[in-house]
Amino acid sequence: MKNNINWNFDNSYSKLPEAFKEIIKPVSVLNPELVILNEELAEELGLDFSKIDKNELSALFAGNVLPQGTSSLAQAYAGHQFGHFTMLGDGRAVLIGEHVTSQKKRYDIQFKGSGRTSFSRGGDGRAALGPMLREYIISEAIHSLNIPTTRSLAVTKTGEKVVRENLLEGAILTRVASSHIRVGTFQYIAAKQNINELEILIDYTVDRHYPEIKSSKTKAVDLLNLVIEKQCQLIVDWMRVGFIHGVMNTDNMAISGETIDYGPCAFMDHYDPKTVFSSIDKFGRYAFSNQPPIAKWNLARFAECLIPLIDKDEDQAIKTATEIIDNFQNIYEKKWLNMMKSKLGLFGENKDDQDLINSLLNWMKKNKADYTNTFSYLMEMPIKDEIYNEKSFTDWVKKWKNRSRLNNSNKEKQIKLMKKVNPLIIPRNHKVEEALIDADKDNYKTLVRLLSIIQKPYNPKGNFSEFQSPPPASKEKYQTFCGT
Ligand code: AMP
Ligand code: MG
Question: What is this structure's pTM?
């Protein structure tokens, strides 16, 4: 393919030792058809697809024709899946290479659903259209909510069916990430007990994501601290908008601090800390309120990988790592409190802030109040719900207003702060389903409209009230299924 798109591949991962990857190309598909292309992201990447016709684009985003300069591979990694350790790897994805923009920003370009690899185990290496479009929608929503995330550049139908419970339309997602290095990547290399390769991985990760510690004499410790900081921030952001990742296995936790692997994820409607949408999460391991302790658990697995390079004396290394991991709670709680104070537009500090926040959360839980809309209501948005007239709520509002008057705040300043962090729009589960059902019938209008609305969550334009309504009451609990 002629390189008039502006691709600029430089493939550093492919130069890592053999143990890190399998050299492999995407498996060609029968009849590719581009379904959606993320023009805004293309522009950010400095890529221009406007001169390419649809057939060529379809062949490109299906992996049938690879751009010049790529060096494709499947990455090796391991992971604790629901607590159980397994050697994994890209079983249905291929990294075609790293595109470097004119601003020298490096992005992984990966095809997900691109066929079998040596890591596929029993799987077919393929993905279905619904879950790939779901990843596209939710990752765009997370990005628009100003939360670090991998992104979706395109979805292409393969023209082949995939066998799941039913026969489904096959599809490939083009995923863009600042890298795909995961906690599981470290676990894979650490499991091989080759200290030289572990060092290579640390150096590579630091070069790519944390160059500020490049010449540190305590690189492993510094890296651990930085990743903890990034992950705390990420989880606090998820908690801010009511996002439930759903499958926080260690292979789905990126070292960059980006949200990765959109499978059974979904946004919470009414506030309940125990909310779980994933059909396979029977015991609520990845429930909304479990996300912080699970992040800490995953980071402890990351710390374990680093032990040999934290200190030559193993006991000392374990002691150091344990102290760092134990500090997770402090970092997280501080960030969480600040975040919740912003959601309520509170400036300064007050000893009763935590209680004020908790009493609102308890009220929401007890009254099944919508998480997003409650904050919208407090920002004086037109939210119609009788629940906000109840005395239990108006009493709380009085306390909140009294607290708000402290610290030289005024209403304008307060609302300004709240508007930055409280979305009016989240991708509501029933709206996502609607878009996916229509897309399956080859009607993409609902999807396009949904995307246009979720791309401006803090200041939506036009008539968006239907996107604010919680799902209609239903006897059946909303369930999501792993990215099949
Ligand atoms: P995930 O649940 O998407 O994070 O995937 C967990 C692991 O299963 C990864 O190693 C994937 O590559 C692999 N996997 C998931 N689906 C498939 C599939 N259809 N074929 C092969 N491997 C898969
Ligand atoms: Mg995964």
Answer: 0.97
120 CB within 6 A, ligand 1: yes
> Ligand 1, closest atom to CA 89?
10
Tell me the CA–centroid distance for residue 252 and ligand 2, in Å.
Answer: 5
Domain boundary at 180, 212, 247, which? 180
DSSP 444: -
Contact by Cβ (8 Å): 262, 44: no
Q: Distance between CA atoms of 305 and 141, rounded to whole angstroms?
A: 33
Shared-domain flag, residues 107 and 246: no
Integer Cα distance of 452 and 137 in angstroms: 10
User: Active-site positions?
Assistant: 251
From the alpha carbon of 482, which atom of ligand 1 is closest?
Answer: 2
Decide whether any atom of ligand 1 lies within 6 Å of the 80 Cβ. no
Q: How many angstroms separate the alpha carbon of residue 340 from the centre of ligand 1? A: 35
What atom in ligand 1 is closest to the CA of residue 249? 4
pLDDT digit string, tens, across residues 90-100: 999 999 999 99
- What is the tens place of the pLDDT at every residue in 340-367? 999 999 999 999 999 999 999 999 999 9
C-alpha distances (whole Å) from 153 to each of 47, 422, 433, 455 are 11, 26, 21, 15
Say if residue 300 is in the same domain as residue 270: yes
**∠ CA(436), CA(153), CA(70), 5° rounding?**
135
- What is the domain count for the chain? 3
Cα 261 to middle of ligand 2, angstroms: 5
CB-based contacts of 477, cutoff 8 Å, min separation 6: none
Domain enclosing residue 74, as ranges:
13-180
> Is position 405 within any domain?
yes
Residue 353 Cβ inside 6 Å of ligand 1? The answer reads: no
Question: Is residue 145 located within the same domain as residue 288?
Answer: no
Ligand nearest to the CA of 484: 1
The per-residue pLDDT for range 20-41, each reduced to its tens digit, is 999 999 999 999 999 999 999 9
Residue 215 lies in a domain: yes
Residue pair 32/58 in contact by the 8 Å Cβ criterion: yes
